Amino acid sequence: MVAKEAASEAASWLRTGDIDDGLDDFIARVTRLVMAGRATSENIAAAYYEALRAAEGITSPRPFAPRRLFSINRLIAGLIYTGPRYAKALTRRDETQNLHKVVGEAVGRNAMRHTLNAGRSVIFDSVSSDPDAWGWARLTDADPCNFCAMLAGRGPVYKTAESAGELNRWHDGCACTVIPVLKENQ
Q1: Distance between CA 75 and CA 86 in Å, rounded?
Q2: Which residues contact 16 (CB under 8 A, 6 or more apart)?
Q3: Which domain holds residue 123?
Q4: Is residue 183 part of a domain?
Q5: 168 lies in a domain?
């Protein structure tokens, strides 16, 4: 999780005395990290999907799946909320011990979600446009929250992200992913 770790350092870019003073620089720097991570996430997910199809012996060309639009405004809002806004709230409550560490972890978890969502979208969109795909399932990390564990427990029951409802929601720090289920895997 390079983006998460790098974004965690971003809290040190906030100036504790006047948090708003470095806001533009903070947003620009973390946004660059996330956007680079998103490109990597998309590329890895696309390569994984193609490799899985090849491993399953599917030779038909995969239909083109257009990439979803990304809302830079949502990213910026999340960075402001987990960065300077959170730092100000901690300062008002006089909880400034380890301020940069605590805020850095919050920013890192938010950056991680936005970064991983790029690859998740590639899998969602590939499955929904691929006639050789039966659906997809959620795969958790080693220590999922109860919500993610429950969703993963449903198994490969979805063909589209829209039909999954809550299954396509991700929280800050969530390391879950989606795995395609191809017809040959049934």
Answers
A1: 15
A2: 87, 91, 96, 99, 100
A3: 2-131
A4: no
A5: no
Nearest to 169 by CA among 125, 92, 116: 116
Flag whether 164 is in a domain.
no
State how many domains the chain has: 1
184: its two tokens: 């040959």
CA–CA gap between residue 117 and residue 169 (Å, rounded): 10
pTM beyond 0.85: the answer is: no
pLDDT at 185: 46
Q: How far apart are CA 82 and CA 30, in angstroms?
A: 12
Residues of the chain with pLDDT below 50 are: 185-186
Q: Which of 171, 69, 70, 161 is nearest to 123 (CA)?
A: 161
Q: For residue 166, is it within any domain?
A: no
Q: Which residues are 137's β-sheet partners?
A: 179
CB 121 within 8 A of CB 9: no
Give the integer Cα–Cα distance in Å for 59 and 3: 34
